[in-house]
TrEMBL record:
<dbReference type="InterPro" id="IPR023213">
    <property type="entry name" value="CAT-like_dom_sf"/>
</dbReference>
<dbReference type="InterPro" id="IPR042231">
    <property type="entry name" value="Cho/carn_acyl_trans_2"/>
</dbReference>
<dbReference type="Pfam" id="PF00755">
    <property type="entry name" value="Carn_acyltransf"/>
</dbReference>
<keyword id="KW-0530">Neurotransmitter biosynthesis</keyword>
<dbReference type="GO" id="GO:0007274">
    <property type="term" value="P:neuromuscular synaptic transmission"/>
</dbReference>
<comment type="similarity">
    <text>Belongs to the carnitine/choline acetyltransferase family.</text>
</comment>
<dbReference type="GO" id="GO:0005737">
    <property type="term" value="C:cytoplasm"/>
</dbReference>
<dbReference type="GO" id="GO:0043005">
    <property type="term" value="C:neuron projection"/>
</dbReference>
<dbReference type="InterPro" id="IPR000542">
    <property type="entry name" value="Carn_acyl_trans"/>
</dbReference>
<protein>
    <recommendedName>
        <fullName>Choline O-acetyltransferase</fullName>
        <ecNumber>2.3.1.6</ecNumber>
    </recommendedName>
</protein>
<dbReference type="GO" id="GO:0004102">
    <property type="term" value="F:choline O-acetyltransferase activity"/>
</dbReference>
<keyword id="KW-0012">Acyltransferase</keyword>
<dbReference type="GO" id="GO:0008292">
    <property type="term" value="P:acetylcholine biosynthetic process"/>
</dbReference>
<keyword id="KW-0808">Transferase</keyword>
<feature type="domain" description="Choline/carnitine acyltransferase">
    <location>
        <begin position="10"/>
        <end position="130"/>
    </location>
</feature>
<dbReference type="GO" id="GO:0045202">
    <property type="term" value="C:synapse"/>
</dbReference>
<dbReference type="InterPro" id="IPR039551">
    <property type="entry name" value="Cho/carn_acyl_trans"/>
</dbReference>
Amino acid sequence: MQFVKRNDGQKTRDNVKNVTPLQLHWTILPHAKPLLQKQIEIYNDLANNLNLQVLIFDGFGKEFIKSCKISPDGFVQLTMQLAYYRLHGHLVSTYESASIRRFRYGRVDNIRAATPEALRWVQAMVVKNKTR
């Protein structure tokens, strides 16, 4: 068993038991039914408007990116910013969850990818005839 330390200093066991999920039975009031139906329609319209294409890229992988002393995750974040910039002319506000559980009272924080440094990098990537 893995021991974890609680905030009060006592050690506890991290017990995880197999639990069978139970179906929840909701009581929906009559006046809420049309509101829920409208939200279902909005959701379905959004889902039906989704255009998804999967691209399998095998030109290189994370080991090559690491060999260039770049974080694979950071690489992906910057390439998404670059793609968005090429389409729209500006960065997109994005964030990614970041675990800080190793620190005291650790929780989840977020990392912002649309930074001034990212903007400078993206602009450098789109400049034509520039030595890179």
